[in-house]
Every structure is written in C-alpha cells, then in structure tokens.
Design a protein that fits this description.
Elements (H helix, E strand, L loop, with lengths): L9 E20 L6 E3 L2 E3 L3 E21 L8 E17 L4 E6 L2 E2 L1
Antiparallel strand pairs: 1-4, 2-3, 4-5, 5-6, 5-7
Length: 107
C-alpha cells in the first residue's frame, strides 16, 4: 500500500442496541401526606415506601453515509432511520403493585 486512503465515497451499517438499567428508592410517607398511588394500590402513611425499577431499551437502525467526491472529503451527509422499543417496569415489593409501560417509536 502507498499510504493513501481508498476512494470510498459512501457506506452504511445496520445497528442493534440493547440497554438495561435498574434502580431502587425508599421514601417516607408521613401520616398527614397524600397517599402514593401505584398500579391501583394506595400507600398511606405513616410508612416507608420502597420501589424498584428496571428499564429495557431495544433499538434497530440503518445508517448511511455519503461523502463529497473530492479527495479531501470536506463535505458529508449521514442519515439514520430506525425503530426503538423502550420498556419500563416499576414495582413496590412491599405490596404486589406493579406498573409496566412500553411503547415504540421511530428514530
């Protein structure tokens, strides 16, 4: 090879992404506080309310790139189209109260 880059003016890729996260929290509900409502269950005070959450994110994309024909490639366009499906699970372990949210969208 002579040290120069190949003459490539365009390209593309398919991508699949998966993300996962989880968390937990505890909050004190006082006797005079409004109850916490979660999935049809009411959590009245005084008590500690513990919750857990999990997030799953699925994504599929197609990416394309087109560059100018000049040797130094000073101009380029990058385009992306895809779909995503996030799912959030939210639960309180003290009572069997769960809520799941899921939707789909375009990227």
């Amino acid at each position: 090879m002579n040290g120069t880059l190949p003459n490539v003016g365009r390209g593309g890729a398919f991508e699949f992404n998966y993300f996962h996260g989880r968390g937990s929290d505890t909050q004190q509900v006082g006797a005079s506080d409004q109850p916490i409502k979660l999935g049809g269950a009411n959590f009245r005070g005084p008590q500690k309310c513990s919750t857990t959450s999990r997030l799953h994110w699925y994504e599929v994309n197609a990416r394309g790139r087109i560059f100018s024909p000049s040797p130094d490639r000073v101009f380029g366009v990058d385009f992306l189209i895809g779909a995503a499906f996030p799912r959030l699970d939210f639960a309180s372990p003290r009572r069997l109260s769960r809520r799941r949210r899921a939707s789909a969208g375009l990227a």
